[in-house]
């Protein structure tokens, strides 16, 4: 079973009360309250206080609460982590992660904050954003730097600039980085999250990119506008045909297990463990997408 | 016997006909037959006047009378201010101003209220400085707010009868054939103005698009028009869509629109041949976008779409998704073009649209209407006229007419706007009674009126996440808290007339 879906992670500017008050109504899998790039240096304290109060006061339902703090090389990181951990954040997203040491340093801050706020040790998880060629080359090392890591994410804007290129509709400039990140994530047993798609008027472009990263193996995508959520979820939603097939596989596996068989066959094809796992994942995704599995004919 | 001027002897009386009048010459009685028109006696008739001042003079308007206007130019209207200035110059006072609606552009009327030119106002809506002034006691007499259908009813019944209607038209010929879908200032339908033209004692058309006779077919025919006044501009077509018809990209409004469509679908309305109307406002307009997608996916067509019409609906007509558009008011230039060119895009007047007493009101045939709201209370009563500060800032429009007429009426609103709750214990002013509202859709959930147990069951069965309206109220309260109540004075500054002519609520002066 999938512990948690992260098909869509919605960025919410941490300095905007109107946006902070109820972004969960759009149904993203995760909310990323941003204290970093969307907040001007003079507004850092105000944003931190706003997000702190929001996390304390507002019931965001079952939606995961992530905060993008300022980078390890800033003077704000200590206060950011202390405040967010105390407010009850689920995941700290660290921008501009370059090496495993960055994660270890962040872990130190989180441990102290957990202790100070009385939260149980290890409760707060980490997501690392990789934004440079060096970070991408260190992807696996970063991914295994701490058991707190739930995923690594590509952040493309800085990356393409460092690569002395620009973003294209086809995304060829990101192909290597995406490939490395998703492979490192899989090797480490954590999630891979793709970068944002910034052209809000281009739904087709977003769909194209979402289909691409889904096919590459990514678990989801950061999004910057609620209108992108249903589109991304639509791409990740299994088709009725996939659901039908997966239901039969899972049922056959259960039956084989009951009869003490290790390997089974369905329609003359051998069904082994990875196929059963994939089928179970499809059904999880279908449920999470609000599809009624029982209504899809077996 | 009496003798005609042609020397024939005729009897002085004849049975039931009573006294007979002998013929006295072809033009002898022309003035008597058509006293305010005084046209035929001039020989070759001309209705065209030099300017607005002359029109005011020739219209026979006197102090204490009632003047009417239409609001098809909405925020782009030039006619009301232009004519009221001329009326003021003529020294006429104590008027009842009875336009189909007023908007922010009519702020200059504040001066005419102060100086006594305007004594009383009857309108569907008021916005901006004028509305603000009235809420603070600008006029001695309360404003009468009526619905579009209610105004048409009042005209038909004669409880409100304009002495002179001054009607802007973007296209008109010298003999008074006026229409809205042609000319540089095209506004589309003149549906509300047609009622004024039919019932006013004297009709003056102001136009910036004088055309050769005959400009037919016409929205307002020559048989109803007394005078025609060419002016520089009747309105700015760009102002028509302001505030009401923007195409939303606001994710909150889109979310409400998707929830609304889910409710409509679950209610079982979307069968082939259904009919619909959506009101103004971002979320209700956005419903059309999703409705269209669903209709295409399912292969469903609507028989007709009613109401204030936007280009999205005109586009659906073009695509064949809608069989006909019944248009009482057009909200943009594309709609005006569609009205001009598509025979299935049909202009209707306000009686045909929504008059509750006429035998053919189209609202009664609606399957579903989606309406915006400023406030909804836990009894589903709707306020679209006063803000949470008690100040007038909206319009009754066709809200209560369509809510009452349509088989399914849905009201949409965000749960909270900025710092104020839209779902409240008691709306500031009732415009539409809760008994004619079936479903409330917000960004935080959908509530069904307890009167509609059938709908509640249908929506629940379809998997729509339902909330009790009381629960929505508490959720809103948990976000906004309870504001201090508005401080009202005792004086009544507005009366909200329900479509049937009864008074549903009174608006009091804001201190």
| Global morphology of chain B | globular
Q: Using only CA atoms, what is the Rg of chain B? A: 25 Å
Give the fraction of residues assigned to helices of chain B.
25-40%
Helix content of chain A: 40-55%
Mean pLDDT level of chain A: 93
Number of helices of chain B: 15
Main sheet: strands, sense, barrel of chain A: 8 strands, parallel, barrel
Residues in β-strands, percent of chain B: 15-25%
Structural class of chain B: alpha/beta
Number of strands of chain B: 30
Oligomerization state: heterodimer
Secondary structure category of chain A: alpha/beta
Give the N-to-C terminal Cα separation of chain B: 74 Å
Largest sheet of chain B: 9 strands, mixed
Average pLDDT level of chain B: 93
Biggest interchain interface, per-side counts: A-B, 11 and 12 residues
Task: Give a description of the structure.
The complex is a heterodimer of chains A (298) and B (511). Chain A contains 12 helices and 10 strands. Chain A has 298 residues and is α/β, with parallel strands linked by helices. In chain A, strand 4, helix 4 and strand 5 form a beta-alpha-beta unit. Chain A is globular. The N and C termini of chain B lie far apart (74 Å). In chain B, the strands form 8 sheets. In chain B, strands 14-13-10-5-6-7-9-29-30 form a 9-stranded mixed beta sheet, sandwiched between helices. Chain B has an 8-stranded mixed beta sheet with strand order 18-17-16-15-19-23-27-28. Chain B is of the alpha/beta class and 511 residues long. The longest helix of chain B has 17 residues, at 282-298. In chain B, 57% of the residues are buried. Classes of the chains: A alpha/beta (298), B alpha/beta (511).
């Amino acid at each position: 079973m999938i512990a948690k879906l992260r098909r869509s992670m919605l960025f919410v500017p941490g300095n905007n009360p109107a946006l902070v008050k109820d972004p969960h109504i759009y149904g993203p899998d995760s909310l990323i309250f941003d204290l970093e790039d969307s907040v001007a240096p003079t507004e850092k304290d105000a944003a931190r206080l706003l997000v702190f109060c929001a996390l304390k006061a507002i019931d965001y339902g079952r939606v995961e609460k992530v905060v993008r703090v300022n980078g390890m090389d800033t003077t704000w990181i200590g206060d950011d982590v202390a405040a967010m951990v105390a407010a009850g954040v689920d995941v700290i997203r660290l921008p501009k992660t370059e090496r495993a040491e960055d994660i270890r340093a962040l872990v130190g801050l989180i441990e102290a904050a957990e202790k100070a706020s009385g939260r149980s040790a290890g409760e707060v998880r980490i997501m690392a954003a990789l934004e440079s060629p060096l970070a991408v080359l260190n992807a696996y090392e970063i991914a295994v730097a701490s058991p707190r890591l739930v995923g690594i994410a590509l952040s493309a804007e800085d990356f393409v600039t460092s690569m002395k290129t620009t973003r294209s509709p086809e995304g060829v400039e990101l192909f290597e980085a995406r490939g490395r990140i998703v492979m490192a994530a899989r090797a480490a047993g954590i999630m891979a999250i793709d970068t944002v798609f910034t052209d809000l008027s281009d739904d087709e472009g977003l769909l194209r990119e979402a289909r691409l990263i889904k096919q590459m193996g990514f678990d989801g995508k950061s999004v910057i506008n609620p209108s992108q959520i249903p589109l991304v979820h639509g791409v990740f939603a299994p088709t009725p045909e996939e659901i039908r097939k997966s239901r039969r596989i899972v049922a056959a596996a259960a039956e084989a297990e009951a009869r003490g068989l290790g390997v089974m066959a369905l329609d003359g094809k051998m069904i082994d463990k990875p196929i059963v796992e994939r089928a179970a994942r499809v059904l999880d995704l279908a449920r999470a997408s609000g599809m009624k599995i029982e209504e899809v004919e077996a | 016997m009496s003798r005609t001027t042609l020397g024939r002897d005729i009897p002085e009386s004849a049975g039931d006909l009573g006294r007979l009048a002998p013929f006295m010459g072809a033009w002898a009685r022309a003035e008597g037959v058509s006293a305010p028109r005084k046209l035929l006696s001039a020989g070759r008739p001309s209705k065209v006047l030099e300017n607005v001042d002359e029109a005011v003079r020739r219209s026979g308007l006197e102090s204490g009378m009632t003047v009417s206007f239409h609001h098809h130019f909405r925020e782009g209207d030039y006619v009301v201010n232009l004519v009221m200035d001329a009326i003021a110059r003529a020294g006429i006072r104590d008027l009842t101003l009875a336009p189909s609606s007023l908007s922010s552009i009519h702020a200059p009327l504040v001066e005419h209220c102060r100086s006594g030119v305007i004594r009383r106002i009857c309108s569907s809506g008021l916005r901006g400085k004028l509305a603000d002034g009235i809420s603070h006691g600008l006029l001695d007499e309360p404003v009468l707010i009526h619905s579009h259908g209610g105004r048409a009813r009042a005209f038909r019944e004669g409880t409100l009868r304009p002495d002179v209607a001054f009607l802007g038209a973007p296209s008109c010929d010298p003999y008074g054939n006026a229409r809205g879908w042609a000319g540089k200032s095209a506004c589309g339908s003149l549906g509300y103005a047609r009622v004024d033209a039919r019932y006013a004692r004297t009709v003056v058309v102001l136009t910036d698009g004088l055309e050769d006779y005959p400009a037919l077919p016409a929205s307002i025919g020559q048989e109803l028009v007394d005078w025609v006044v060419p002016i520089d501009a009747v309105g700015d077509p760009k102002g028509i869509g302001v505030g009401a018809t923007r195409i939303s990209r606001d994710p909150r409004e889109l979310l409400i629109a998707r929830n609304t469509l889910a409710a409509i679908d679950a209610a079982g309305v979307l069968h082939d041949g259904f009919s619909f109307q959506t009101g103004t406002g971002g979320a209700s307009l956005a419903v059309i976008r999703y409705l269209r997608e669903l209709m295409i996916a399912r292969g469903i067509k609507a028989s007709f779409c009613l109401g204030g019409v936007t280009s999205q609906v005109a586009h659906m007509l073009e695509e064949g998704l809608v069989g006909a558009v019944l248009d009482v008011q057009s909200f943009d230039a594309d709609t005006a073009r569609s009205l001009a060119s598509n025979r299935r895009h049909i202009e209707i007047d306000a009686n045909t649209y929504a008059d509750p007493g006429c035998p053919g009101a189209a609202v009664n045939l609606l399957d579903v209407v989606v309406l915006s709201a400023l406030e909804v209370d836990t009894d589903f009563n709707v306020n679209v006229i006063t803000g949470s500060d008690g100040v007038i800032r909206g319009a009754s429009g066709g809200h209560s007419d369509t809510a009452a007429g349509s088989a399914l009426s849905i009201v949409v609103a965000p749960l909270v706007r900025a710092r104020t709750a839209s779902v409240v214990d008691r709306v500031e002013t009732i415009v539409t009674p809760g008994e004619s509202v079936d479903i409330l859709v917000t960004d935080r959930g959908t509530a069904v009126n307890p009167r509609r147990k059938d709908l509640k069951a249908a929506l629940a069965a379809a998997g729509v996440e339902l909330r009790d309206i009381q629960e929505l109220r508490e959720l809103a309260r948990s976000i906004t808290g309870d504001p201090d109540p508005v401080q009202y004075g005792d004086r009544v500054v507005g009366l909200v007339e329900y479509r049937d002519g009864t008074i549903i609520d009174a608006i009091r002066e804001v201190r």
